[in-house]
Amino acid sequence: MAESGSVTRVVHDDTIDFALAAYVADGEWHLGELADTTLVSVETLASGLRRFDTGGGALAMVGVDEDFFVLVRVDGSATRALLSDVTAALEWEIAESVVDFLGLLDPEDDDHGPAGDLGIVADLGMHADDMGELVDDVELYPDEMLSDVAHRLGFGPAFDDAVGFEGP
After folding, report:
1. Could you point out which of 62, 71, 116, 164 has its C-alpha 20 to 30 Å from the C-alpha of 85?
2. Does pTM surpass 0.85?
3. Strand (E) or helix (H) holding 73
């Protein structure tokens, strides 16, 4: 734990449910685990993702404490990010880094909703409107949401296997 003003911020520890890199190589989707050292900020995630970028970009999929997810996508020097619930930035360092990366003001307790690029994977098969609907569903856990994303992009079974998701 680290203190920041009067708000207790949780630094990466065993609260990360999963942290995967998804990337296309030889025309097929592959998954790899992201090192713990990359799970601090958007910048460290992007740096860790670059080792997976085979020319078509790479996507980090991070689920935190069954509460929210972070997507970071790198394609060459470009980095894009999506946080499923902006209020996570009030308690979690990795979520706060997304808000900072996006240049947003600190959220208030009642600012629920996503922050960032809802079209982060639109060119891969999941449009921004669909992503918006998905992250607005407060009944779903992060692994369920990201399983849906993975299925729409074409690597759902591999994702489900990697995170131990058994579906509804």
Report:
1. 164
2. yes
3. strand 68-75
